[in-house]
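Researcher: I'd like a candidate sequence for this fold, 374 residues long. If you have to choose between options at a position, lean toward the conservative one.
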């Protein structure tokens, strides 16, 4: 049975391409969740809180995880919060009132959930942070995500690998993700650790001056709410103000696909055409619109996070929690939420370019060839 309001059908295959090996995992003992040691999954309720339906990835994440948990015999409630923090808190509070065994939460604002999670804790409900860490509370039991620093590092390394074909110095415009999303600083740090030395050595220059002096300065170029429109107007402003007299931008560091969509629009509006002279433009998520842009030459790469592998891992962790078994984690040092280091399972992200869309995204079943007009 599904008690959820917004449940959508699982639309992706069950096979995890990037199966993670048990060999690299360690485990922690989980106390049985609310209601004592469960003898089986049957009948237990699991709450799933997702940030928004407006981005393709969260729809896929939510529907896939929901489908897996149902298949395992759980009841589920799946809610999307339209990127509104208060709405998400209310949804989680409503879930807590229904006494789920476990809450799986992809937080909109990583620091806003402490009070509602205190209520969850008082009822013995376990909490798994999904994709994004929840900060400032001891009431988050586990975290599962992709290696967020590595995502940024892959973007930075990709840009570095393209510099030999670009003017020296190449004109770079860096962007960062939403300041309230804990992942965004990891993405930026991974990329900036590769790119800042190149800015310092003069191989890259940032005509807009929006070049954070250190990783910690990233929020100054953060795009609130990961909005495509906001990224588009920011890019338009930079192009109008700093790229006059024939100056061209050669590289844009975009932390994800929603920003890259807006940036590509701004480039198009300013007359940039796919082909030689079109800037190197990064992304993340392998959203369909962006894969189509990669095919069309309007985006250079994306960092693919096969959300099925995250769903598989989280569903397994939920099951282990409910059954009072050891819970798989493979990182117990990287994710300090300000109160404690949260035991984490990290999955590997993968670069996708035009050349490997078929071998990575289609052959794995993430997309059908027909979805991409191939
Ligand atoms: C996720 C990214 C996503 C971004 C915007 C981040 O927390 O890790 O995959 O692009 O949020 O929704």
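Model: Candidate sequence:
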């Amino acid at each position: 049975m599904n008690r959820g309001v917004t449940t959508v059908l699982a639309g992706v295959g069950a096979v995890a391409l990037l199966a993670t090996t048990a060999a690299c995992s360690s485990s922690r003992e989980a106390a049985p969740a609310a209601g004592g040691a469960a003898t089986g999954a049957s009948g237990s309720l699991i709450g799933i809180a997702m940030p928004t339906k407006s981005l393709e990835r969260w729809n896929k994440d939510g529907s896939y995880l929901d489908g897996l948990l149902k298949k395992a015999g759980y009841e589920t409630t799946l809610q999307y919060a339209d990127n509104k923090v208060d709405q998400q808190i209310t949804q989680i509070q409503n879930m807590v009132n229904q006494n789920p065994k476990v809450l799986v939460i992809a937080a909109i604002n990583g620091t806003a959930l402490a009070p509602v999670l205190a209520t969850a804790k008082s009822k013995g409900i376990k909490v798994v942070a999904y994709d994004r860490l929840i900060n400032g509370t001891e009431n988050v039991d586990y975290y599962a995500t992709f290696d967020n620093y590595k995502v940024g590092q892959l973007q930075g390394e990709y840009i570095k690998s393209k510099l030999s074909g670009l003017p020296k110095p190449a004109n770079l415009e860096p962007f960062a993700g939403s300041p309230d999303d804990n992942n965004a600083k990891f993405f930026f740090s991974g990329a900036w650790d590769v790119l800042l030395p190149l800015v310092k050595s003069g191989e890259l220059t940032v005509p807009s001056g929006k070049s954070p002096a250190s990783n910690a300065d990233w929020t100054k170029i953060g795009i609130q709410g990961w909005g495509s429109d906001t990224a588009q107007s920011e890019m338009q402003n930079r192009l109008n103000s700093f790229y006059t007299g024939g100056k061209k931008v050669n590289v844009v560091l975009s932390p994800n696909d929603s920003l890259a969509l807006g940036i590509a629009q701004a480039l198009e509006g300013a007359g940039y055409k796919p082909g030689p002279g079109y800037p190197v433009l990064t992304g993340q998520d392998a959203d369909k619109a962006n894969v189509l842009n990669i095919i069309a030459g309007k985006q250079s790469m994306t960092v693919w996070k096969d959300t099925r592998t995250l769903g598989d891992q989280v569903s397994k962790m939920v099951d282990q929690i409910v059954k009072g078994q050891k819970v798989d984690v493979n990182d117990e040092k990287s994710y300090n939420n300000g109160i404690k280091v949260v035991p984490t399972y990290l999955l590997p992200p993968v670069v996708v370019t035009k050349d490997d869309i078929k071998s990575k995204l289609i052959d794995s079943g993430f997309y059908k060839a027909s979805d991409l007009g191939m």
